[in-house]
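Technical appendix A lists one of the benchmark inputs used to test multi-chain prediction within the project. The record comprises three sequence entries:
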Amino acid sequence: MTHQQTIELSTRGRGTTEITAEVAQIVGAARIESGLVNVFVLHTSCSVVLTENADPSVRQDLETLARRWVPDGDADYRHSDEGDDDMAAHGRNILAGSSITVPVSKGKLLLGTWQGIYLWEHRTHAHRRKIVVSVLG
Amino acid sequence: MTHQQTIELSTRGRGTTEITAEVAQIVGAARIESGLVNVFVLHTSCSVVLTENADPSVRQDLETLARRWVPDGDADYRHSDEGDDDMAAHGRNILAGSSITVPVSKGKLLLGTWQGIYLWEHRTHAHRRKIVVSVLG
Amino acid sequence: MTHQQTIELSTRGRGTTEITAEVAQIVGAARIESGLVNVFVLHTSCSVVLTENADPSVRQDLETLARRWVPDGDADYRHSDEGDDDMAAHGRNILAGSSITVPVSKGKLLLGTWQGIYLWEHRTHAHRRKIVVSVLG
């Protein structure tokens, strides 16, 4: 059995938006006792990730790391149609991924105490993003 | 219900081979209305990734980035049995991953407009690669 | 149909612990002919990864690479409550991921000849870790 719903949200440019509650609500609505939930972005310049949900500094430090892993406006990039953050966003998406898959247990999202689900915007400007949530069991 | 099929292909060494059409065809053959499809490589020196499908420069730039993330023939590597690209390929596989999981909706692969599915060969020489496609719903 | 079981293990600090046999046993117990198995850690400072299972040097070299990708005790980190390896562990978790999803075929885990499943501890000290294994088909 599959239950599928789409989340749409607007980002304010680079940074994370927590979507744990939205995903948990869709899992609850699915009425699936045991299974998996996949959370997938329909874009190649942002990511869905799991990370520490207590101290916001963790997500700021991830931003610091991402700037080193994939520099903006690097002289070696051929793809720069949409600005210095264009190719950088695609590189970050390869490293951080496009989706996560999480267990569903007793009808609920099964996360560790410190795990939260975040949309991570990799473009510097605000964007409208679509996320597909699929619950299977 | 599960529908499972294997794709085999030959790479020409480092670089990407698009497999979106092959995966879409298997999803169509599965006759599953709603669910997930997992695309998995049976190897630790190549990856299956989602990335931008319009401008081929994006995939060239990913290659440029990967050479920096995981240098070939680094003096600190202990594992170099098969040459300078051996350990580099395993490192790239950890960063870019071995599989992707994508929603199936209305019997079709549900991708964003600019998302394509690629086999990314990390070895410098040509290899024969096996990819398992599993459709669940 | 879903079969779900939890693996608990103690790590000795940074490094990999192979869990292929434990996952294969759970897949066997699930009695699911064809499907997928997801192996998920309930933590944000370790990873579940697939990598080469023959030469242990590969996992040592991954450790060398990870120290470069995400340095310990970097002066730019704001999050360092639990020591120099605290933020580094969260950064490694983003790069290497929290879970893998692998095909199940003929009632068995379907891996390539050289693929093994590992828990990769990113903290320097020993930790108790919980891994949820979900088999769907």
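Strands of chain B lie at 2-10, 15-18, 35-41, 46-52, 99-105, 108-109, 115-121, 128-136. The mean pLDDT of chain B is 98. Comparable benchmark entries are summarised in Table A2.
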